[in-house]
Design brief:
Oligomer: homotrimer
Radius of gyration of chain A: 20 Å
Order of helices and strands of chain A: HHHHHHHEHHHHHHHEH
Strand order of the largest sheet of chain A: 1-2
Distance between the termini of chain A: 43 Å
Largest interface: A-B, 34 and 40 residues
Strand content of chain A: under 5%
Amino acid sequence: MIVPLQQPPDRKCSPPKLDERKHPNLPSKCRCGLSSSPGARAVFMSMKLSLNWLLIFAPIAFALRFWPGQANPTALFVCSAIAIVPVAGWIGRATEELAARVGEGLGGLLNATFGNAAELIIAGIALSKGLTSVVKASIAGSIIGNILLVLGLSVLLGGLKHKEQRFNKTGARTAVISLSLAAIALVIPTVFHLAASGSPGGWSPAVERQLSLGISVVLFITYFCVLAFTLKTHKHFFVGAEEELEEKTQRWTKSKAVVVLMIATGVVALLSEFLVGTIESVRASIGVTEVFVGVVVVAIVGNAAEHSTAVVMALKNKMDLSVGIAIGSSLQIALFVAPLLIFLSYCFGRPMDLEFSLPEVFAVVASVYIIFQISGDGETNWIEGVQLLSVYLILGILFFYLPEPFARH
Amino acid sequence: MIVPLQQPPDRKCSPPKLDERKHPNLPSKCRCGLSSSPGARAVFMSMKLSLNWLLIFAPIAFALRFWPGQANPTALFVCSAIAIVPVAGWIGRATEELAARVGEGLGGLLNATFGNAAELIIAGIALSKGLTSVVKASIAGSIIGNILLVLGLSVLLGGLKHKEQRFNKTGARTAVISLSLAAIALVIPTVFHLAASGSPGGWSPAVERQLSLGISVVLFITYFCVLAFTLKTHKHFFVGAEEELEEKTQRWTKSKAVVVLMIATGVVALLSEFLVGTIESVRASIGVTEVFVGVVVVAIVGNAAEHSTAVVMALKNKMDLSVGIAIGSSLQIALFVAPLLIFLSYCFGRPMDLEFSLPEVFAVVASVYIIFQISGDGETNWIEGVQLLSVYLILGILFFYLPEPFARH
Amino acid sequence: MIVPLQQPPDRKCSPPKLDERKHPNLPSKCRCGLSSSPGARAVFMSMKLSLNWLLIFAPIAFALRFWPGQANPTALFVCSAIAIVPVAGWIGRATEELAARVGEGLGGLLNATFGNAAELIIAGIALSKGLTSVVKASIAGSIIGNILLVLGLSVLLGGLKHKEQRFNKTGARTAVISLSLAAIALVIPTVFHLAASGSPGGWSPAVERQLSLGISVVLFITYFCVLAFTLKTHKHFFVGAEEELEEKTQRWTKSKAVVVLMIATGVVALLSEFLVGTIESVRASIGVTEVFVGVVVVAIVGNAAEHSTAVVMALKNKMDLSVGIAIGSSLQIALFVAPLLIFLSYCFGRPMDLEFSLPEVFAVVASVYIIFQISGDGETNWIEGVQLLSVYLILGILFFYLPEPFARH
């Protein structure tokens, strides 16, 4: 492992195991390749505070939905979207607490499952309503949003404050290569469709779904291999030399964690239900396409917690955390959430395939390619943030102008 | 900043500010990521001499064009093409002199505008005649020509003389990532066309132009951010430790610089007019396609000055300069000239979009990908020159065999 | 050249010149970028023994083919496939012995020609029968098979035994960039077909073949440049500091080498004849497509010798050798075997073009991209093996589900 020489001890990575007890808003992202430092604690506390006041939007959303005579879908959409952010933070906190009590194996699994709980719930509800194009758009949007928007803003704002910032490039490598693998996987159904359409036998949705299921299984297994690599066999890659500060916060009891987890998950589910239920009318009233809503709006809402945390970490010059949250979150979406949604679609009796539209496929490939270049030297500066945000803007323009519904190539 | 240990002091990069007064033929290219050393002075003097004798072709071109009874378009094409090279060198020299007198901000802008003056004037004239496919082909051709042909020849010839050559890879990184961003931007209109064609709403040229305009604005802003990064906030990335030799050449007065700039620009404009006006008949008589002329011929002519300078620098073992000229020039074309031409096309009342043909898009993406790999380690050797030239040859073969006019996918 | 500091002396690369006398089963692969160490000798001896018992399948294959009344194409296919493996090993051994006796220049050429003798013979016979889609599928399959399956298994198994493994990344660079160049070349005919189809002039097979021939010539010349770079001008890149152990094995005489080479080549040719002759009926009885047979089955058989050697080397912690075999073999296929088959196709009077199907092109590009990322840091660990194998599995799933015959885009 090559550790940058200039890196002061307190910027080195700490063991994920300890971290996971402390950071309510960044549960398991840091462990998919990169880890965090305990000095970030105070920040998270203030973060939680700053996010908790957004909880006020939850009762407003409920009122808008159930108060008789009310029918303002746009207001409901906005309030639900905002209210999801702090509740998603509580899911993260409860997951951490629970994971710390059940041992490493089950704990890792819990984190892996609930780490992107908000995205998963929103997408699951959209899936149950048959809105597969919103589901796929939000998968693609979450991947590119984390890499380009979340990391881009973090690198830009961090870079404006600190001339040069460093992170552990060894950890980032594993995550970025896994993202490349996922990008290849997401291109395959599109390639298959094009090739099969030109054959006499032709293309059939059933074969497309079998292909997608096979790919999902491979991605899912790879995800758990990456977890094993990060948490077990090569956790020394991600461990710094510093002595961990002792954790002073009082731990939750197991039952408290379970109760909070259940309540928060239920609330997010309800709010997601409101959100997804109003997409159609909001889309029509604002005049943007379903795909634009999925790629931009849903993706930003589902990742708001990571977003704010990553930026705060970058300002505090903790680029390891910032990069870890952004890349790790994309990785979880691509290797865990996307396959899981395919499996879920079979449970719902509406099998979904993994075929993304050409613009979505292109956006994911371009984002993964740029993050590979940016992350290669373990250093960031503000121009790299500008470059990431430029790619995000350009892709946003593409999705904005795309007519609806567009054909899936 | 990681400086290669073996690099002798006199190979380190010097501040762009000082350079720009000395090198008539490489105005602002070096500043987009990499910079030059003062030892290169003697070379440039001889360069200028060796290029100035080509000025003889300017009166020949005028004679061929205006002498009554003459009508040899091929000779006119060839003479105009050759004569543009030394006059473009004088634009560069005058720009440098003027930039040195007006302060850094306005000077940088001057350099950015006139750095690729020849390409810009040729393309502008082609644009005013409605030859948009020649304009696009020459944009694509300039990008790949600088990366593959100019740099390939420099690396090969330099590598045959010097076993291993080094350059500042930190500076090259920023430029190469910006090129990747530009490559992504240039793919987007093609992706949009494909996706929109398959939708019921369908594809419309008006939306394509709006999309292209939006992308151009983002690229243009990114270009000025890169300038700010290179010239202001992170110029220490590009500055070596050595003491600059004092410049002994007498400076031009501001008015002399303005007069030379105006005359040289006017002459290039006239020669470009001849060049573009004869493309059609030359194309027909040689039997190659319009796109081949744009991608290969116009691109080589427009970049001839950079070309010879980059090769001479490589032979002198100044790879920082050589790489800086080649990559920086491609960067200027992609992030500055291409958007500017889109803006100009609106002034001319013939709005152009940024949709390149599939072969052009592929050529740009492949070139940027290869330069990313080659530039990654900050070292070059002759086989890397062979590899760059091989890609150029292969792409040249593709454009040679393409039927005319080919459909834009 | 940057040598990793932690690398113990006995892991450094040794001169290819000496190596080539010792390793019967890995003739010239190691020289295309990476080289081997003499400590590997004992392994090879046991390898040869373990492979030689497979020779028993050769007489069985002959019996199945010529014994009257027998007609079991599947058994003949399987026996021929297995029997090719050890005989291919003997071709390698004889080539090494002969190369060592005829001097460096001719020796290098011999190695280059016979290094992938089995693949070349199988493909040549398929070509003579007009099975061009099998030929192309086996070219694509050999490239991706070596990069993903051979190297993936080596890295995974080596990584399970050794926590971290290192290899000479300077050597790997040259080979990987050459592979990228080859990948670009293989995409071009597909791009040409798409672009030309949309033009009024249209696409014609004759122009496609001219284009392919031009590309093949460039690739072929590049291959010999890479050989010159590796064997002559920059062999110090590939030479370690250690003292070579003296070779004790008795050398073959020149005539013995020639006789063994001729007999082994003849036997492989006959077995390949059986193999190719039964592809059609095996394909039909197992129910897989011709392309799947080419990409997966033929590619695995043709590279079985490299396969076992690379894995054994990885287990012995000789990653330089393992990486060198896998990447070098892909390189030979792409830059030497593929162009040679195009040239051969003209001798057979059935000119073949280089246009691969979209899935094949995608598979090659994806594999080359992943190997570029994996090989970038000169280190491997088990998760990188998992990542390579995941990509192989995903591509295998794609080829498995593709309907037959599929249109070539």
